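Subject: design request, 171 residues
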């Protein structure tokens, strides 16, 4: 049932000169959502201040948050995220996964499928992982099961190993 699925693409091309505020953008795609629903969604990502801003004044990461809010306004059962941290720096990626944890808290019944090439963050932030390689499913399971999978280790080697990153340690 596709009405229960929301999709957030990696990028959206829009005419840069078209004057469109965030609230107008969100209302176009969610005609049944009222302003309180929109504000609640923006508040989840701490971007309620974007409501009256022009969509083209947002950074890529800010716009990505608006796209996720847009997807959540339809109250989907399944949220598909296509490389949502593409072009985002390491600190932004960490914040993104914190935001996704907030989404899971606010919408506990939602299932999220996230496509990513960043194995470290996927491993660190996922409950189930499905790995595709050369057009076939090479493994799936919990992060600990994936770590023990010989085939996945042969394909990705040390790139699969989780790491700890703290940008404030000064390494």
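Subject: RE: design request

Done. Sequence follows.
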């Amino acid at each position: 049932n596709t009405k229960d699925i929301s999709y957030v693409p990696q990028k959206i091309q829009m005419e840069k000169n078209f004057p469109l505020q965030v609230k107008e953008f969100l209302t176009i795609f969610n005609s049944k959502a009222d302003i309180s629903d929109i504000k609640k969604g923006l508040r989840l990502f701490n971007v309620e201040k974007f409501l009256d801003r022009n969509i083209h004044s947002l950074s890529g990461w800010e716009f990505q948050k608006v796209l996720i809010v847009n997807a959540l306004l339809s109250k989907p059962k399944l949220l598909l995220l296509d490389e949502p941290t593409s072009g985002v720096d390491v600190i932004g990626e960490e914040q993104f996964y914190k935001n996704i944890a907030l989404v899971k808290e606010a919408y506990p019944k939602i299932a999220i499928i996230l496509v990513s090439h960043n194995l470290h963050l996927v491993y660190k932030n996922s409950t189930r992982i499905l790995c595709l390689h050369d057009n076939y499913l090479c493994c799936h399971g919990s992060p600990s099961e994936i770590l023990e999978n010989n085939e996945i280790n042969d394909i990705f080697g040390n790139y699969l190993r989780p790491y700890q990153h703290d940008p404030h340690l000064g390494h």
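Helices lie at 22-29, 35-44, 60-72, 90-106, 119-125, 143-147, 150-156.
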